[in-house]
Specification:
heterodimer, A: 227 residues, alpha/beta, Rossmann fold, 6 helices, B: 786 residues, alpha+beta, 4 domains, 6-stranded mixed beta barrel, 22 strands, 56% helix
């Protein structure tokens, strides 16, 4: 069964002569537990695709169904709560809350949901991330790789249906990039987590189940790559 | 672009919205300083005009000096005008009279009317040239139908009457009207030649020698020099304290206390302006740290970055300072127009479009200097940005957190809001400082209300405009006169009082006398305001009852039954109420007792009134007043207090307008400051908010976070404002009020609650603007801006 279904997705910025079509009739689906990489040149439209899937941006036309739910028929408040509970984000520039510790940052989506964080769950994530010893550190006291690991932990904490990762290794060196990729793969396997990752680094797609390529807003399914 | 500083206008176009707030801050600061200084300048000007009119434009008055001494004083280079002045029959006794009214005879030099007492203009004719010429006041002209060249005869208490030829008519003085007397003005030589006056002074030079010094000289030093040179004791030297005080030339301890107060208020206003601009620039630069990092990255030196920030700040000044000054001038003009409208009598001389040059200079200089000084710190901060910051993309407008938010006890949005407010100490200091300063300013300026209420007694509702008084203080004014006055359309209210002086009274062992006064309906209503205990209605409605007025010497109490000896017959009177105060001074006896007209007539038999007070309609004409005067008859004393009432009302209105004007400006600045500060704080964190929205924070949660931040600033600012404001309030109150009138200091609960409520409500409402921006926030654009 497909967790994510994207159909005839179009996104155009601007109007008239200055109009830029970022996405053209994009259609694809992702079954539960699959780790999908979206590759493409800079400006090809891959980030726009991710933003539309995550409900951060509105498509010009087309539908995005996550577990059968259409994000764009929801009201803003409803969509926010849906996103909080069902979609985890990992950004290139980490986007951690500088005033919260590692533990608080991971628990942040739960706190936003006014739920008491489950210590066992947090501990498990910290264990997986290798950050148990740093749980009370602030983001400014961590390296880039560690900060990105915290961001992955934050994305995992709500056990979302889908994790969207936008160039998660873009700001990291090769060693840290490798660590982050391993974490994402581990999450995909251990927690049966569906992940959609954007990258322009073809080397990183090796660990993914499937690769999609975006060129000038047109998506092509390159099929499975994982060995 | 020819040089790197040309980036400033280009950058200004790109950051129009961000810069608008900073420009507004400068505009408001300049406006605050200009308006407050301008209002103070206008106040001083109007008070000087008033002082010239009521007390005269003189600085020192020397008495018992010789003509030689006077010549020595007049020869000083720092003396601008001089005049001898003396008055005969100042108390307007009837034995010195012109026609049927008392006359006060004044002798002075021509400069007295032209330079020193400009409040008594010469309406017609010229100053007495010699011989038997005299100027008379306008009321004599109208009552006696006099013309220039007419001859008048002034009856003197002893010796021959004076025969004088009228050479001019002068404006009535409020004192003459109040005493219902005529003024006769002679030259000094003529005055001294009057035999009765020459005999009274027995060879000495009569009167005072008024001196007006140059306003640019050191007047206190000049007076000391003259005193030393002529060997004059302090008793022989008088000073016009009010005028000298207004000129900043007084050494009176009360005035020195007021100067200190003014200095503190000026300092606070300047500090408010500086803090507002500094806070705004700090936020503005903080928002663009990455931009400055980029500049450093492409080769700008720290010095160049500092120059750029400074040039940017100055470019705002080019627009903001003239605008602030312009609005300040408009505010002052509006104020002048309101003043002229409120009291045309009082502020007739105030220019319609007055420009206060000192306030404009102070506003411009403060604006410019503050911007330059305030730009230093953010400029240095911008210059310190490492080029690496820009390259790595790690630049964040907010400094790295030093400690974590407390999410255990509070909801995460509230906890983060509070943490945001506390995160940057400098920012918290500036924000809370701005809030606190508004409170301090409001509290400090509110002391002026207490000062005003003491220094300028507002007109009591009982104050009459005209009074018809029995010349021998008996009940000789008929009730018919009161009835006909009540029917006169030019009279709004007419009410009479019967007086019985020194009425013997006994209560058990107590013996003494009281003054018994009758009240009617209006006066009883006014008396209710001063009721300490008992009932005014009982005294009004029940026969044989009365009120008494509290004084430490008055032994009468509520419930006492006293026996009055009325025309030889003992009659009982029950005290049913005690008033805290009345408009009558306590006479020689135990105190004043007030009863109804019926009770008074039961005690003393039927009879007329001792006094009838009249409150006239607005716009009453002089001929209508004259008709009332004629109606009262020539045998009755007629007192016209309209001029002196107008003086008191004018002074009170003027001061009220300034004080409340100051408070309104401060309140408006507080509102703007709070709104602007929060808006800037939100702008600085907009990117962070975008990320939070992406992670799943709802718009409502974000608004709650901003509200928590605003509440933290408001609470910290209010606390600091109270902690610092109350001691300053105490200090100013003690200097201005306790020192002169002895009132003990109390916590100013009302102004404190008002300003804290204003800060709290404004902080709450100020979240609305940023909330709208947050709701409209595009998450993608915000994150992409990274």
């Amino acid at each position: 069964m497909n967790l994510l279904e994207v159909k005839d997705l179009n996104k155009t910025y601007g109007t008239g002569e200055t109009a830029v079509q970022a996405l053209r009739e994009v259609t694809f689906s992702v079954p539960k537990g699959e780790f999908v990489a979206v590759v493409g040149e800079s400006g090809s439209g891959k980030s726009t695709l991710l933003n539309c899937i995550g409900g951060l941006d509105h498509p010009t036309s087309g539908t995005v169904l996550l577990d059968g739910e259409n994000l764009f028929t929801m009201k803003e408040q409803e969509r926010t709560v849906f996103r909080r509970r069902n979609i985890g984000f990992v950004f290139q520039s980490f986007q951690l809350v500088s005033e919260l510790t590692v533990e608080q940052n991971i628990a942040f989506p739960m706190l936003l949901d006014y739920r008491k964080p489950d210590p066992g769950r947090i501990d498990e994530i910290l264990q997986v991330l290798g950050l148990r010893g740093r749980r009370h550190h602030l983001p400014s006291q961590l390296s880039g790789g560690q900060q990105q690991r915290v961001a992955i932990g934050r994305a995992l904490v709500m056990k979302p249906m889908l994790i969207l990762a936008d160039e998660p290794t873009g700001n990291l060196d090769s060693k840290n990039s490798q660590d982050v990729m391993e974490l994402l793969v581990q999450a995909s396997r251990r927690f049966q987590q569906t992940i959609l990752m954007i990258t322009h680094n073809a080397n990183l797609t090796a660990s993914c189940d499937r690769v999609l390529r975006v060129i000038d807003g047109v998506l092509t399914d390159l099929g499975g790559v994982r060995e | 672009m020819k040089r790197y500083l040309d980036l400033v206008p280009i950058s200004a176009r790109a950051h129009k919205k961000q810069n608008r707030m900073s420009i507004l801050c400068i505009v408001f600061s300049v406006l605050l300083v200009t308006a407050i200084f301008g209002m103070a300048d206008m106040f001083l000007r109007s008070q000087k005009i008033q002082s010239y009119k009521t007390d005269g434009n003189w600085h020192a008055a020397f008495k018992q000096i010789t003509d030689e001494d006077a010549a020595l004083i007049a020869a000083r280079p720092d003396v601008e005008a001089i005049s001898w002045y003396d008055v005969y029959n100042y108390q307007a006794e009837p034995d010195c009279s012109l026609g049927e009214k008392p006359a006060a005879i004044c002798g002075f030099d021509a400069s007295f009317l032209s330079d020193i007492y400009t409040g008594i203009p010469l309406l017609e004719g010229s100053f007495p040239a010699g011989g038997q010429e005299a100027i008379v006041t306008q009321n004599a002209k109208e009552a006696m139908n006099l013309k220039l060249g007419d001859t008048i005869t002034v009856k003197m208490p002893e010796g021959n009457p004076l025969t004088l030829t009228i050479c001019g008519f002068a404006e009535n003085t409020s004192m003459m009207l109040r005493f219902d007397a005529y003024g006769i003005f002679l030259s000094t030589e003529q005055y001294r030649a009057i035999p009765q006056i020459a005999a009274k002074n027995a060879g000495t030079v009569p009167g005072m020698y008024y001196v007006q010094f140059s306003p640019y000289s050191n007047i206190q030093k000049a007076i000391s020099d003259i005193q030393l040179q002529l060997g004059l004791s302090d008793e022989r030297v008088g000073q016009n304290f009010k005028l000298l005080g207004l000129m900043g030339q007084s050494d009176d301890p009360t005035m020195l206390g007021l100067y200190l107060t003014a200095a503190i208020l000026v300092f606070l206003v300047l500090l408010a302006g500086i803090l507002m601009i500094a806070s705004s620039l700090n936020s503005n630069v903080a928002q663009r740290i990455q931009f400055f990092g980029m500049l450093r990255c492409i080769g700008a030196t720290p010095k160049q970055v500092i120059r750029l920030v400074r040039a940017e700040a100055l470019s705002w000044c080019r627009f903001a300072i003239p605008l602030g000054l312009g609005i300040g001038i408009a505010a002052i003009w509006t104020l002048c127009a309101v003043l002229r409208w409120l009291s045309p009598y009082y502020f007739a001389d105030m220019p319609v479009f007055a420009v206060s040059v000192p306030s404009l200079l102070v506003g411009a200089v403060i604006g410019l200097l503050t911007v330059l000084l305030a730009a230093r710190a953010p400029a240095k901060r911008a210059a310190r940005v490492s080029p690496l910051t820009a390259v790595s993309g790690n630049a964040d407008s907010t400094a790295p957190a030093r400690n974590a938010a407390h999410t255990a006890c509070l909801k995460v949005d509230t906890a983060l809001g509070i943490h945001h407010a506390k995160a940057n100490r400098k920012n918290l200091l500036l924000m809370a400082g701005s809030f606190a300063l508004s409170i301090i300013l409001f509290l400090s300026f509110s002391t002026l209300i207490s000062f005003m209420n003491h220094a300028l007694t507002p007109l009591d509702p009982t104050t009459p405009d005209l009074s018809v008084v029995s010349p021998d203080s008996t009940r000789s004014i008929s009730g018919e006169l009161l009835a006909s006055l009540q029917d006169n359309p030019a009279i709004e209210r007419a009410y009479g009082r019967m007086f019985a002086y020194d009425v013997p009274i006994t209560r058990g062992e107590l013996h003494g006398t009281v003054d018994l006064i009758s009240y009617e309906e209006h006066q009883f209503r006014w008396a209710e305001q001063a009721l300490l205990e008992g009932s005014v209605e009982a005294a009004e409605d029940e026969a044989g009852t009365a009120l008494t007025v509290y004084s430490p010497e008055n032994p009468l109490q509520l419930g006492d039954v006293v026996t009055l000896e009325c025309n030889g017959t003992p009659k009982d009177l029950k005290i049913v109420g005690v008033l805290s105060d009345s408009v009558f001074s306590t006479g020689k006896g135990l105190g004043n007792v007030i009863c109804s007209e019926d009770t008074f007539q039961d005690l003393f038999g039927p009879g007329g009134y001792t006094i009838i007070d009249l409150q006239v309609s607005q716009g009453i004409t002089e001929s209508e007043v004259e008709t009332i005067h004629t109606l009262a008859g020539p045998e009755i004393k007629f007192s016209d207090r309209r001029a002196s009432n107008a003086e008191v009302t004018g002074a009170y209105l003027a001061f009220s307008l300034f004080v409340y004007g100051f408070l309104t400006v401060i309140a408006l600045i507080t509102v703007f400051n709070v709104v602007n500060s929060l808006s800037m704080s939100v702008s600085a964190r907009m990117r962070q908010y975008g990320a939070m929205r992406a992670i799943g924070m709802s718009g409502r949660q974000l608004i709650r976070m901003v509200t928590a931040e605003a509440a933290t600033y408001a609470a910290t600012g209010s606390l600091a404002g109270c902690l610092l404001g109350l001691p300053i309030h105490w200090f100013l109150f003690t200097k201005m009020v306790t020192f002169r009138w002895g009132d003990p200091w109390q916590i100013p609960v009302v102004p404190l609650c008002m300003i804290i409520a204003l800060v709290a409500v404004t902080a709450f409402l100020a979240v609305r603007g940023p909330a709208k921006r947050i709701r409209e926030l595009s998450i993608v654009e915000t994150i992409s801006a990274e």
